[in-house]
Write a structure and sequence with these properties.
By secondary structure, the chain is α/β, with parallel strands linked by helices. It has 22 helices and nine strands.
Length: 523
């Protein structure tokens, strides 16, 4: 029996979460379009397609897709190189087609070969990046630096008193709601703090308009307002397929497909780790869903799409448990753009910055640095290198640096030992089918995909004997997989017998605690 939440089984959590994701996605869609040198409406198109179409096709229950900041530099450069926005849209469509081929060719397994230290570093780096980049908006500064250091050094330029006041009010509401009121009753769980903070921002703007404490128009959300249906349709752009024979268009399309796929796969694994139900997203299906989304987005004038950790983490943290929240947030984007653009344009950007401050802090909690340091240099070095690379360079450079460090450490540790995974099937064990899994001398994150697939394929009502007596080194990534599997095992009536040099343990409560008592496996 499937123990996971059914599609409509968490509406009381998914609907409020969709509202939170909507308020997070709206400024991000507009901001990424602005940073990409593309029409602002293109960011909204990508958010709508990512929410509705990709949400329906994806196998992820809690991932949210939309325009990604990691692609902004590629988009900005390519628009000029290819000679215009309509020419660039052809590359977006081609990128989607290539992603479909990636999925068909089962290239989704590449995501399994990124160690958890790099993924955690990616989450933390993005969290810090979000906080720093939102500082000018939080204070209503008109200065928006091109680089993160330029922004950090100049955020006091032209500070707006009104924006700053409502930003702190909004931040106070968010903290109060999260730490106190959310446990006081169902009302405070249904009506989420970000919604209240945004409403307070609109009220403040109307009450202080025209006063020294008011908010300037440049510090408010700026959604295009169509005068009629024809002007609304006029905001859509269509690709110029006359340039499809240009080799540069194909190169750009392949680049978009490769970068978008890598970002999506990394975000999928990061999102799966944040999922309270520890579900595993089918990565090949995800690539095909993203490819279909990029084809449609490119055909109607949208930015390239990836699964995005900011929106996905906001979804999870707000109670989203099924794809309904992602799909509804896409419809909310349509409704808001068509019906209430004037109201949206009353929302102070500083309040939205406060919302993103909370999201960024949850991704980059200071306690995580201590946890990673205590796990040892094999975990901490790739983690901190990834964080610093993302902050001072960009997302892909940071991930690449962290992965390189992780590979060097693993190769140094395990070069003299082979890797293998041995499974034996037996007939019965107390009325249950029995499977024996023997780990190799060295088990690293390179083995993560194989072990994860084997554990996920174990049927219900099974007795699993896990033998680690031959194992001299067990990577933290594998321990985390076993920890997650112990939750699934209870739901699937799978008994676990852990056999080690320290004896036999039946259904261990925590693999992390158990192996912490065996430091010889983690050194």
């Amino acid at each position: 029996m499937d123990t996971h939440t059914s599609l409509f089984g968490n509406l009381k959590g998914d609907i409020p979460a969709s509202i939170v994701v909507f308020f997070v996605a709206l400024p991000l869609c507009l901001g990424i379009a602005l940073a990409s040198g593309a029409p602002l409406f293109s960011g909204l198109i990508a958010g709508i397609v990512g929410g509705i179409m990709v949400g329906m096709l994806s196998g992820s229950q809690i991932g949210v897709s939309g325009p990604a900041a990691g692609l902004a530099a590629i988009v900005l450069t390519s628009i000029g190189t290819l000679g215009g926005w309509e020419n660039f849209l052809v590359a977006v469509v081609l990128g989607g087609v290539i992603q479909l081929l990636f999925g068909i060719l089962k290239a989704g397994v590449i995501g399994y070969y990124f160690p958890s230290s790099v993924i955690k570093g990616m989450l933390t780096g993005i969290g810090i990046f979000i906080i720093i980049k939102q500082i000018p908006y939080f204070f209503g500064s008109t200065f928006k630096g091109e680089s993160i250091m330029e922004t950090a050094n100049n955020f006091f330029a032209n500070i707006s008193i009104g924006s700053t006041i409502i930003a702190f009010i909004g931040l106070g509401i968010l903290i109060l709601w999260q730490n106190v009121l959310s446990s006081k009753g169902k009302f405070f769980q249904l009506v989420q703090g970000p919604l209240v903070a945004v409403a307070a921002g609109i009220i403040y703007h109307l009450a202080t308009k025209g006063t020294p404490y008011g908010i300037e128009s440049g510090s408010l959300v700026n959604v295009p307002i169509p005068s009629d249906f024809n002007s609304f349709l006029g905001q859509f752009s269509f690709p110029n397929f006359g340039v499809i024979t240009n080799p540069a268009v194909w190169v750009t399309g392949f680049t978009i497909a490769l970068v978008a796929s890598l970002e999506t796969l990394l975000c999928v694994e990061a999102t799966d780790k944040l999922d309270p139900e520890k579900r595993v997203t089918p990565t090949n299906r995800e690539l095909m869903a993203q490819g279909a989304g990029n084809i449609v987005s490119g055909l109607i004038g949208g930015l390239p799409i990836t699964q995005v950790i900011v929106r996905s983490s906001a979804n999870i943290q707000s109670g989203g448990r099924t794809k309904i929240s992602a799909i509804v947030h896409g419809f909310l984007l349509i409704i808001s753009v068509v019906l209430v653009p004037n109201i949206l344009n009353m929302i102070p950007l500083s309040v939205l910055a406060a919302v993103l401050f909370i999201v960024g802090f949850k991704l980059a909690k200071p306690a995580l640095f201590k946890v990673m340091y205590n796990l040892g240099m094999k975990q901490f070095l790739p983690f901190i290198v990834t964080v610093l690379g993302i902050i001072f360079a960009d997302l892909l450079i940071g991930i690449g640096m962290g992965l390189a460090v992780g590979i060097i450490i693993i190769l140094y540790k395990s070069y003299q030992n082979s890797h293998f995974l041995h499974i034996e099937d037996h007939n019965n064990s107390n009325g249950k089918a029995k499977i024996k899994m023997t780990f190799a001398e060295e088990v690293t994150f390179f083995n993560k995909g194989a072990i994860l697939n084997e554990l996920d394929s174990i049927p219900e009502d099974t007795a699993l004997e896990l033998d680690v007596r031959k194992t001299r080194f067990l990577d933290n990534d594998i321990i985390e997989i076993l920890e997650d599997f112990s939750v699934k095992a209870k739901n699937r009536n799978i008994d676990i017998k852990l056999v080690s040099h320290h004896g036999v343990v039946e259904n261990p409560e925590s693999f992390i605690e158990h192996f912490r008592l065996q430091p010889e496996l983690a050194n």
